Amino acid sequence: MVGRSNVGKSTLINALVKQKIARTSAAPGKTREANYYLIDDQFYLVDLPGYGYARGGAESAATFEILTQQYFDPGSRPGRRVAGVMHCIDGRHPDLGADESAHQWLFRTGLPLAIVATKLDKLTQSERARNLRSLDESYDTTVLPVSSLEQTGIDEVWKTIRGWLC
Ligand SMILES: Nc1nc2c(ncn2[C@@H]2O[C@H](COP(=O)(O)OP(=O)(O)OP(=O)(O)O)[C@@H](O)[C@H]2O)c(=O)[nH]1
Ligand SMILES: [Mg+2]
After folding, report:
1. pLDDT tens across 99-143, in order?
2. Which of 9, 39, 49, 113 is the most buried (most CB within 10 A)?
3. Mutate to test the pocket of ligand 1, among 4, 25, 67 (most ligand atoms within 8 A of CB)
4. How far is the centre of ligand 1, averaged over its atoms, from the C-alpha of 118 (Å)?
């Protein structure tokens, strides 16, 4: 799980496993290291710290970004395979520059990617349609619409993850 701070990465992990295993917060900058959750004794869901915010200011922000880049460095953990990346983007803000540059960076890793549009319960039907269309137009990647709060779209996220594991 990759995405801006507060976009709902940890909450999505909890929605996927239907348990409160990952710590969440209304304030951004909650997840401060890579957290690995072993699923079915087979693979890990990995909750990474968000980008675009850090309590410790610019220096701390840079540390988070370095941590994320290290995570994706193929040399950093020999024998480990990253099966795919869920790039979480807040459904209310489909056109943020920080997300666009993160996506370009992720794209260059060559890993399978999907975009999760989060917090869709906060949008009206028409806002939802408009913002999903905007994401579809801006990104050349499958967009999975989700509300972790209402547990909608979660099965589709699982389908994509399972597909990556084959
Ligand atoms: N309404 C609504 N709120 C959500 C949803 N997903 C997450 N939130 C809320 O958004 C806030 C941030 O959620 P987190 O899961 O902690 O966000 P995060 O991306 O892990 O944030 P960092 O760890 O700081 O990078 C919390 O208050 C969540 O309850 C959702 O689907 N709907
Ligand atoms: Mg988190």
Report:
1. 998 899 899 999 999 999 999 999 999 999 999 999 999 999 999
2. 9
3. 25
4. 9
Strand partners, 116: 88, 144
What domains lie within the chain, and their CATH numbers? 2-165 (3.40.50.300)
How far apart, in whole angstroms, are the C-alpha atoms of residue 115 and residue 85? Answer: 8
CA 49, CA 153: separation in Å to the nearest integer? 23
Ligand 2 centroid to residue 75 C-alpha, Å: 25
Could you report the per-residue pLDDT of 33-64, keeping only the tens digit for each?
889 999 999 999 999 988 887 555 666 556 66
**18: Cα within 13 Å, side-chain hemisphere:** 5
CA nearest ligand 1 atom 5, residue: 119
pTM over 0.70: yes
